[in-house]
Amino acid sequence: MGYPETFEGFMIHSHKNWSDFKKEEYEPKPFDERDVDIKIDACGVCGSDVHKITGGWGEANLPVCVGHEIVGKAIKVGDKVTTVKVGDRVGVGAQIWACLKCKVCKSDNENYCPHLVDTYNTPYPDGTISQGGYSSHIRAHEYFTFPIPDNIPSEMAAPMMCAGLTTYSPLVRAHVGPGKKVAVLGIPKANPPRSGGLGHFGLLWARALGAETYALSHTPDKKADALKLGAQAFILTSEKGWAAKWAFTFDFILNAADMTHTFDLPEYMSTLAVNGTFHNVGLPDKPLRPLRAQDFAPNGAAISGSHIGSRPEMLAMLELASEKDIRPMIETIGIGEKGCKEAVERVHTNEVRYRFVLVGYDKAFPSR
């Protein structure tokens, strides 16, 4: 049938064959008065995409089209849309809908709405399953559609839609800025390339916000890139007694690693200042090691986590990136059955520096 009745996407049908993408049509949700249709030009490849298609986070609603770091042009807007007009370059992140009526939404915490719809693999109230950005188009509520500053190229803006916001939000909610000491875990490796999309954004944002910024890593070969990305010091956590040297130091540790289940968490927590926080944005497939209540007592430490961020935070993040010329380190690859396969397999084995972005949408979807 084609647009607007159907969209085309690269779909996964089996967790067993999780990198075998097939191009096919699917029906989007019905178009509503506050919806925006977007012709996609770029989409980042997120670790969440891999967790979803492998079944690492549980069974998915199959078939599924993943991708939630989307940038493109608005080609249709609903009658009551006020924030987007046809022709605007816009982005969509990991959330595509919320009720916008509950007390959570009304407090600028719509990313925690109990009725939220993720950009892919989540049912809308009418039962339609959301599908993501490895596709020709995306249909999004205007509240979750964000203007992209003119000076940020689409392929650079795409990873900001999820990885960027996921790391920016907890930093600003923790009031990170001048006078604060922040450490980032989950730092990318340069040679050979290793994925570290969240961690590399964490360093970029912490430094841009004015914090004293540190990188924590168990391997020394990440030092050069960590310093390049904004770290003012590099701490090697594989050295014996490393934590003792940094006891009571950090106001906030941003943990972007997805191997937290292997960590000695009390050791990391010991480096926190009094009432400091160890905050998780990396979400491993496996459960964390057991902790005792006593582990939190020596410095009044806390462990926390978060889910993406709010619309005001997204807009502020994009403004900061525009003003300070902040750009992620990316690799681009043409979208297609082959390109999608290579991208997710390399993310799965941590062989990308540091974020993949799918491009070439006009070639992949010539009839749109």
Helix content: 10-25%
Q: Mean of the pLDDT scores?
A: 94
What's the β-strand tally? 17
Strand content: 15-25%
Report low-confidence residues grouped into runs of 5 or more. 191-195
**How would the global form be characterised?**
globular
How does this model look, in words?
Strands 3, 4, 5, 8, 9, 16 and 17 form a seven-stranded mixed beta sheet that branches. With 368 residues, this protein is an alpha/beta fold. The longest helix is centred in the C-terminal third of the chain and has 13 residues, at 311-323. The radius of gyration is 20 Å and the shape is globular. α3 (163-173) packs across α4 (197-208). It contains ten helices and 17 strands.
Chain-wise SSE layout:
Blueprint: E1 7-11, E2 22-26, E3 35-45, H1 47-54, E4 70-77, E5 89-92, E6 95-97, E7 117-118, E8 137-141, E9 146-147, H2 154-157, H3 163-173, E10 181-185, H4 197-208, E11 212-217, H5 223-229, E12 233-236, H6 242-245, E13 250-255, H7 265-269, E14 272-280, E15 302-305, H8 311-323, E16 330-334, H9 337-348, E17 355-359, H10 361-364
Parallel strand pairs: 10-11, 10-13, 11-12, 13-14, 14-15, 16-17
Antiparallel strand pairs: 1-2, 3-4, 3-8, 3-17, 4-5, 5-9, 6-7
Helix pairs in contact: 3-4
